[in-house]
Design a protein that fits this description.
single chain, 21 helices, mainly alpha, about 450 residues
Length: about 450
């Protein structure tokens, strides 16, 4: 039976003479072939599995089409087009696209095989498939009807292109070593076809790749996040500043989220590299302004995003964000206080109590509050009394007392303040206390706290 893109169960009918036939489920067979290719221990069967996968891939593409002539027509058509449609990500991938992605992941596994001849053949085929997908994508972006004429089987060409990002985030960690250089080759090919990287048709393909990479950053598995970060870092270094600025906020949100979630000793190099590129991206995008703090501007959106990440649970993220805020302040000529006035930072850093939140959240709030009190001028008023009537501010004074408990009491008391039901490591308790001590050092030097501090300290002596 011909491979049909609009059904989920795909099969091949084997006909025997004079009578008799067997129906073979292609998707199940492909899953078996893929598992063989993903297993280095089954290298003796890699060639057979690859031949099957290669044969299934051929079913997706026209048999009698002159691709050289087709590519020439598409290139001429795209370069004459001054505009293109925006990328619209489907909410649910078509079954044929899912199946095609499985085939291409199996091809990536073949390209990572120990057999050099097999790996070279698979790599060449993947490169051609990705280029074919890009040609159809740029054609579709400029004229959907034109794409139907050049793609009679009506496959989603994005499946071929987005396979690069999927391979970067695959659980088989051999695949990223194949996918990363192919991503660079595909980018160069795209620029060659459209004549310039900021051509609307090129931006359509780049938008699709960035959307998929950002989606991977929000996935649960660490290999997905690392693949998404690899793709985003590539585009951060290769896109021109005007084009990068359009995607800057979206990219930073995804990269910071993934870095925060990967923030552990096992991924410290990845986190450090990611935050270095985040820093570089922000500096590139806003090096020459405009510095306008108005709703809807890129600068205002960036300042608000940075203010939100000041209370990130990740220490690495907090430190990088603080440095970027000082950089934007110096560059724009505005004080940190002026930059942050329009944000919601002051609403999140003044807790009623240190309790009832995860310990990482308590540490991050203390860090943000310390930052708000130490900038010149301070962003907020943190006083033991209510200014209007001179009455005690119970929220602030109780929070101050709890900070002292965190610093002065034994581990059991600190755990009680942390209100954690899970085990808290000694290093976390130490970080908890050090951040509380830093905040306390800022508070006690403020004139409005001197009398209250004197009375409280006498109770602890």
């Amino acid at each position: 039976k011909p491979l049909q893109p609009n059904i989920h169960i795909l099969s091949v009918l084997l006909q025997f003479q004079p009578t008799g036939s067997i129906s073979l489920a292609v998707d199940q067979a492909v899953a078996t072939a893929a598992s063989v290719l993903h297993d280095p221990a089954q290298s003796a069967h890699h060639s057979d599995a690859w031949r099957y996968v290669r044969g299934c891939l051929a079913l997706f593409f026209p048999e009698d089409q002159d691709t050289v002539e087709q590519y020439a027509r598409i290139t001429e058509h795209v370069r004459k087009s001054a505009q293109a449609a925006p990328y619209n990500c489907p909410k649910l991938a078509a079954p044929a696209s899912v199946f095609l992605n499985k085939l291409i992941m199996a091809a990536f596994a073949a390209a990572a095989a120990s057999n050099s001849d097999l790996a070279a053949e698979a790599t060449r085929l993947i490169k051609h498939l990705v280029q074919h997908g890009m040609m159809l994508c740029v054609a579709a972006s400029t004229d959907a009807q034109y794409c139907e004429e050049t793609d009679p089987k009506n496959q989603r060409p994005e499946s071929l292109v987005l396979a690069l990002v999927h391979a970067l985030g695959h659980s088989d960690r051999r695949l990223p070593t194949v996918a990363e250089p192919l991503l660079a080759d595909a980018f160069d090919f795209l620029v060659t076809v459209t004549a310039k990287v900021d051509h609307p048709a090129a931006d359509y393909v780049i938008s699709a790749l960035l959307h998929e990479a950002c989606s991977l950053c929000y996935e649960r598995e660490s290999h997905n996040k690392m693949g998404g970060l690899t793709a985003l870092i590539f585009f951060c270094t290769h896109l021109p500043v005007p084009q990068l600025t359009v995607y800057c906020i979206k990219l930073m949100k995804a990269m910071v989220f993934a870095a925060m979630d990967l923030d552990s000793e096992l991924a410290v190099d990845t986190v450090s590299r990611t935050l270095t590129h985040v820093d570089s991206m922000v500096r590139r995008c806003f090096a020459s302004g405009p510095f306008v703090l108005e709703e809807g501007t890129a600068f205002d959106a960036m300042v608000k995003l940075l203010s939100e990440e000041l209370s990130s649970p990740s220490e690495h993220v907090r430190e990088k964000v603080k440095g970027l805020l000082f950089y934007l302040s110096e560059l724009s000529g505005m004080s940190i206080c002026h930059l942050l006035q329009s944000t919601k930072l002051t609403n999140t850093v003044l807790p009623k109590t240190a309790r009832n939140s995860p310990i990482s959240v308590q540490i991050s709030r203390m860090y943000a509050l310390t930052f708000c009190l130490t900038i010149d001028p301070p962003l907020l008023e943190f006083s033991p009394t209510v200014t209007e009537n001179g009455q005690p501010n119970n929220s602030n004074t109780s929070y101050f007392t709890e900070i002292l408990q965190i610093i002065c009491r034994l581990d059991d008391s600190a755990n009680n303040v942390a209100r954690s039901t899970a085990f808290i490591s000694p290093s976390t308790i130490m970080a908890f206390r050090l951040q509380a001590l830093e905040l306390l050092g800022v508070i006690v030097h403020q004139p409005q706290w001197r009398e209250f501090c004197k009375a409280v300290f006498e109770l602890f002596i």
